Amino acid sequence: MSETWTFVCAVSELLPGEMKTAWDEVTSVPIVVFNYDGEYYALEDKCSHEDFELSAGSYDGEDATIECVLHGARFDIRNGAPLCAPAYTGVPKFPVKLEHDGVWTRDDRD
């Protein structure tokens, strides 16, 4: 498990309804961070149905969902849960912290 936090962006660069991507500095895992109405959430930037980046899809800032552009699988950005076929497995969720006017995340899996 990585204890090293990865800087994503300045808080002012991630407004409600927006998302940003980053790569974990230790594990090199792609992570997408969402601002949902002032709350921040991070998921692995990979659809669980097929190895494709979620950040290429559409983020619905009102429903807190991300839809994979490849086959239409939709996930809840707050917990990574799949919401419709063809995805039946969730997407890993990562911690987010706000510190020094920045948004930070990390791959906290063992």
Short structural description:
This is 3-phenylpropionate/trans-cinnamate dioxygenase ferredoxin subunit. The protein has a single domain, classed as 3-layer Sandwich (Rieske Iron-sulfur Protein), CATH 2.102.10.10. Helix content is 0%, strand content 38%.
Report what the structure shows:
This protein has no helices and ten strands. It is mostly beta strands and 110 residues long. Strand 2 and strand 3 form a beta hairpin. The model has no long low-confidence stretch (mean pLDDT 96).
Search tags:
single chain; mainly beta; Rieske Iron-sulfur Protein; three-stranded antiparallel beta sheet
Please tell me the overall pLDDT. Answer: 96
Q: Taking strands numbered 1, 2, ... along the chain, how are they ordered across the largest sheet?
A: 2-3-4-8
Kindly identify the CATH topology.
Rieske Iron-sulfur Protein
Task: Report the CATH superfamily.
Answer: Rieske [2Fe-2S] iron-sulphur domain
Low-confidence stretches: none
Name the CATH architecture: 3-layer Sandwich
* Overall geometry: globular
Termini Cα gap: 4 Å
The helical percent reads under 10%
Number of domains as seen in the coordinates: 1
Estimate the strand proportion.
Answer: 35-45%
Computed over alpha carbons, the radius of gyration is 13 Å
Beta strands, count: 10
Describe the secondary structure blueprint for this structure.
Layout: E1 6-10, E2 19-23, E3 30-36, E4 39-44, E5 58-60, E6 65-67, E7 74-76, E8 93-94, E9 96-99, E10 102-105
